[in-house]
Design a protein that fits this description.
The chain is of the alpha+beta class. It folds into three domains: 69 residues; 75 residues, P-loop containing nucleotide triphosphate hydrolases (Rossmann fold, 3-Layer(aba) Sandwich), CATH 3.40.50; 35 residues, no CATH class. 45% of the residues lie in helices and 11% in strands. It has seven helices and four strands. It has a four-stranded antiparallel beta sheet, covered by helices on one side. Helix 1 packs antiparallel against helix 2.
Length: 220
């Protein structure tokens, strides 16, 4: 809005100047046409320049927010002596009377939730919007810790694992996912960036999902 207002003021001011000079008889009709064309081109240039300055200001605000985000201290406390995360579950995942409320929330999202998931089971959580389905997954990833109760993995509380080691064993696609402007190969590679983007395991993972060798997987 400021950009358009500034451009409009400049253009009308220029037209007023040309009209004034015309009334005084100091410029000819040809001069008027030349000035008009010049001001039209200047208008476009001025609009682009002001739009660029406005965008630069907005980007500066975003960068400021980004640095503020980097300065935020994590609420998750790492254990002093972390236990190894099991690579293959034996007894499964157990939620034992888990309750959780977001720091800015007025009521618990999860209240005394108990659930057992055995190894190899496929679980579907069904519920209304806001019933806590996504929150439960966030607790499993230890993006938050329960206010009450505990979540165990093969009998060990998630808070006893190193957070990075735990999350390394979990794959999550949230409902507000981000679509990266990368190739299919690079998107698969993001699942384990410890390997190189050309690692053979990327093809193996693609073939496993496609259930067999296909030209598509080989062209990744």
């Amino acid at each position: 809005m400021i950009t358009e207002a500034s451009s409009t003021i400049a253009i009308f001011g220029s037209f007023a100047f040309i009209a004034y000079r015309t009334l005084l008889g100091t410029i000819t009709l040809g001069d008027r046409v030349m000035y008009y064309m010049a001001f039209q081109r200047a208008q476009g240039f001025l609009q682009e320049m002001l739009r660029g300055l406005s965008g630069l200001y907005e980007d500066t605000l975003l960068v400021s927010d980004f640095y503020e985000f980097l300065d935020v201290k994590a609420d998750i406390v790492e254990p002093p002596h972390p236990k190894p995360v099991p690579r293959s579950l034996q007894s499964g995942i157990v939620l034992d009377h888990v309750s959780f409320k977001y720091p800015t929330g007025s009521r618990p999202v999860l209240d005394e939730i108990s659930l057992s998931i055995r190894p190899g089971e496929h679980i579907t959580l069904v519920g209304e919007n806001g019933s806590g389905k996504t929150t439960l997954v966030k607790l499993l990833c230890r993006l938050y810790d329960p206010n009450d109760g505990r979540i165990t993995l093969d009998g060990v509380d998630l808070r006893e694992f190193k957070t990075t080691a735990l999350r390394h064993q979990i794959s999550v696609v949230f409902q507000d996912y981000a679509q990266y402007q990368l190739t299919a190969r690079e998107n698969i590679w993001l699942g384990n960036i410890e390997h190189s983007p050309d690692h053979e395991q990327i093809i193996t993972a693609a073939l496993r999902r496609r259930r067999g060798d296909t030209p598509f997987a080989r062209r990744l």
